[in-house]
Amino acid sequence: MESILSGSSRIAFGENGRLLFRDFLAGQRFSSIFVLTDSNTRVHCLPVFGAQFPEAGKWTILEIPAGEAHKNITTCLTLWQQLSGKGADRQSLLVNLGGGVVTDLGGFVASTYQRGIAFVNIPTTLLSMVDASVGGKTGVDLGLLKNQIGVIQDPELVLIDSGYLNTLEERQLRSGFAEMLKHGLILEKPYWDALKNTTNFRSLQEHIHTSVILKNNVVLEDPRESGLRKILNFGHTLGHAIESFYLGKGEGLSLLHGEAIAAGMVMESYLSVQHAGLSTSECDEIKSVMLRFFPRVPFPEADREAILELLRFDKKNSAGSVRFALLQRIGKACTHQEVTRESLRGAFEYYAD
């Protein structure tokens, strides 16, 4: 697959990506190289990485605990101290090997350590390949609030190797698949139509490439998220609130990102009927497809109210008003849509029915 230029970085795939990474390393004179993993990717992905790049045996491995609960400034502080203690300087390189938590957090750590060192992202989950790999967003959560602290900074290179998908359980694959479905819904109906009949989540290489292209086209037009890029938030206003709410319930009860976003997309499709002109038939189609791939999440009344309260912290808010990216039709999205509290409660009812 051909590599893709994204801002100041290049997104490369498979063997071609591995060759570009070797050329990149040969063309630079890094004083030291660090590899950031979490406790899962160190066990399952680092051996694969080490087999592909034997020279990595001489690099310094950094490890953080796995899970969204550790995507916070405390983890960053630990890593900054480790980098400093191990002699990292402005000519060092940080390689982020992991899912979205590792690439988001690692990118933020690199972008702020000594006012910025070079970093490379190697996403190892489907979610991070089709979402976190594109657009240069880095950051951490603030308490239960998703991605409240961060900067936009492109990595030097993104290497997408679908071989890492073999290390994932199907639940994790489905989580990433939700973002791919979103790309079809907001940008390209034929892509949605192709994805909705998927039966094998381990044979998505061509679709991964398509998702990266679709998201990258949006990011290139609006790199700072001042306009068009906000369509990528479809499903995420309610979805992030749902994810944050369940994160507060503890690791055993939390939802994966894609599971929360799938529920959010069903609800925001309902809001799209109420406020953006989406047809009822397309709304029902979206609901049917999402519930085929993702089990329905129960939302008791008290939970619904708590989730709605979290909406006031959403980064897209303006003058205290919650704004949504909604669908005008499958393949066409709009942004900056204000919805009523009554519609929000109706969205939960629609999802539950």
From TrEMBL:
<keyword id="KW-0862">Zinc</keyword>
<keyword id="KW-0520">NAD</keyword>
<feature type="domain" description="3-dehydroquinate synthase C-terminal">
    <location>
        <begin position="176"/>
        <end position="317"/>
    </location>
</feature>
<keyword id="KW-0170">Cobalt</keyword>
<keyword id="KW-0456">Lyase</keyword>
<keyword id="KW-0479">Metal-binding</keyword>
<dbReference type="Pfam" id="PF24621">
    <property type="entry name" value="DHQS_C"/>
</dbReference>
<dbReference type="InterPro" id="IPR016037">
    <property type="entry name" value="DHQ_synth_AroB"/>
</dbReference>
<dbReference type="InterPro" id="IPR056179">
    <property type="entry name" value="DHQS_C"/>
</dbReference>
<protein>
    <recommendedName>
        <fullName>3-dehydroquinate synthase</fullName>
        <ecNumber>4.2.3.4</ecNumber>
    </recommendedName>
</protein>
<keyword id="KW-0547">Nucleotide-binding</keyword>
<dbReference type="GO" id="GO:0003856">
    <property type="term" value="F:3-dehydroquinate synthase activity"/>
</dbReference>
<feature type="domain" description="3-dehydroquinate synthase N-terminal">
    <location>
        <begin position="62"/>
        <end position="174"/>
    </location>
</feature>
<dbReference type="InterPro" id="IPR030960">
    <property type="entry name" value="DHQS/DOIS_N"/>
</dbReference>
<dbReference type="Pfam" id="PF01761">
    <property type="entry name" value="DHQ_synthase"/>
</dbReference>
<dbReference type="InterPro" id="IPR050071">
    <property type="entry name" value="Dehydroquinate_synthase"/>
</dbReference>
<comment type="function">
    <text>Catalyzes the conversion of 3-deoxy-D-arabino-heptulosonate 7-phosphate (DAHP) to dehydroquinate (DHQ).</text>
</comment>
<dbReference type="InterPro" id="IPR030963">
    <property type="entry name" value="DHQ_synth_fam"/>
</dbReference>
